[in-house]
Specification:
The N and C termini lie far apart (42 Å). Strands 1-2-3-4 form a 4-stranded parallel sheet, covered by helices on one side. Helix 1 packs parallel to helix 2, helix 2 packs parallel to helix 3 and helix 7 packs parallel to helix 8. It is built from 8 helices and 6 strands. By secondary structure, it is an alpha/beta fold.
């Protein structure tokens, strides 16, 4: 619930900002009230897995807060997104989705936008790898591209292993993403990702 989400996140945001005044915190929420409260407490970025779909006041709120907004593509909701997702052409459909969402975000005066194709969110293994293979097409949007592949099932299912053993696969796909134009990597293993970027 919104109440529980705020009870969990607000004290942590407060503590981190107090202990590390220079910290840049990105808040993962699809609720505008949670976004508003966290920005008031010193967070810097809103990361919305639904790109405003799950709270119609989110974009208006982000525009008023004047903070960067990460929009992710997700087909359906977290509860039903993996129940037989179907696309005619997944990359084309995700690109079209972003063209609409960017126009909407601009109408709410959101200046700083970051896009995330949403690997694993309402997509089969085949869909995920098709987007990855065509990732350079997202450069046409001319916005920073965030990629979150870290230890995802598309890696460990393909390699017939598990999330714990998926670091090597994660590094491989992060490298491919960087070569195809990714600007930001969302990761669990920071040291390894930084090495990947440096190389």
């Amino acid at each position: 619930s919104e109440e529980e989400e705020l009870q969990r996140i607000a004290p942590i945001v407060k503590l981190l900002v107090l202990k590390f005044p220079e910290i840049i915190l990105s808040i993962d929420t699809f609720r505008s009230e949670v976004a508003k409260k966290c920005i008031e407490l010193g967070a810097a970025i809103i990361n919305d897995i639904s790109a405003g779909e799950m709270d119609v006041t989110m974009m208006k709120t982000v525009g008023e807060l004047n903070v960067p907004y990460i929009m992710m593509h997700m087909k359906g909701t977290p509860q039903n997104m993996q129940k037989n997702p179907v696309y005619k052409n997944v990359t084309e459909e995700v690109l079209y989705y972003f063209s609409e969402k960017i126009a909407l975000a601009r109408s709410y005066a959101i200046n700083d936008l970051i896009i995330d194709p949403g690997f694993g969110f309402g997509k089969t293994q085949e869909h995920n790898f098709k987007i990855l293979s065509e990732l350079e097409l997202f450069k046409n949007i001319e916005l920073p591209l965030l990629i979150g592949l870290s230890r995802k099932s598309m890696i460990y299912k393909t390699l017939q292993t598990n999330a714990k053993e998926a670091l090597n696969g994660t590094t491989s796909l992060n490298t491919i993403s960087l070569l195809k134009g990714a600007n930001i990597l969302r990761v669990h293993d920071v040291k390894e990702a930084i090495e990947c970027i440096k190389l």
